[in-house]
Amino acid sequence: MTEVDAGLWTTVADVAAALCLLAGAFLTFAAGVGVVRFPSLLARMHVVTKPQVLGLVLLLLALGLRVRSWSAVALLLLVVVFQLATAPVAAHLVSRAGFRTGKVDETGLHPNEMGEVPDDDPPASATSGPRAP
């Protein structure tokens, strides 16, 4: 069995960290450009949450590969978990507030699930038929 030089693993980790850093920086930059370029609130909200979160995860992965300390990696993992838990909730609340205050163009929503149900349409439970005992 051949032993692998410790310097080789250091080099591989550094290259992987550099690639993750570049990819994360690109995604974060793309999220920033999307906020400026996209026309509607919902499109801007989408571009802020999706690539920005993945970009942050890649940046933190790069930092964890470069630092190589278990305590730092545990702290970075905690940051990732909180980011993944809070970003969708924040995006939902922003979109809901925008919808309720009239900042969202409703003509582009297909279907509008938050709108009023017309009187001539029966509720979904009434069309499903009788329930089995």
From TrEMBL:
Pfam families for the chain: PhaG_MnhG_YufB
Looking at the UniProt entry, the stretches that span the membrane are 15-36, 48-67, 73-94
Map out region (Disordered) in residue numbers. Answer: 103-133
Query: Which family does this protein fall into?
Result: Belongs to the CPA3 antiporters (TC 2.A.63) subunit G family.
Give the source's domain of life in one word: Bacteria
Name listed for the protein in its UniProt record? Multicomponent Na+:H+ antiporter subunit G
Q: Does the keyword Membrane apply?
A: yes
User: In its keyword annotation, does this UniProt entry include Transmembrane?
Assistant: yes
Per the UniProt record, the source organism is Isoptericola halotolerans
Keyword terms, alphabetized: Membrane, Transmembrane, Transmembrane helix
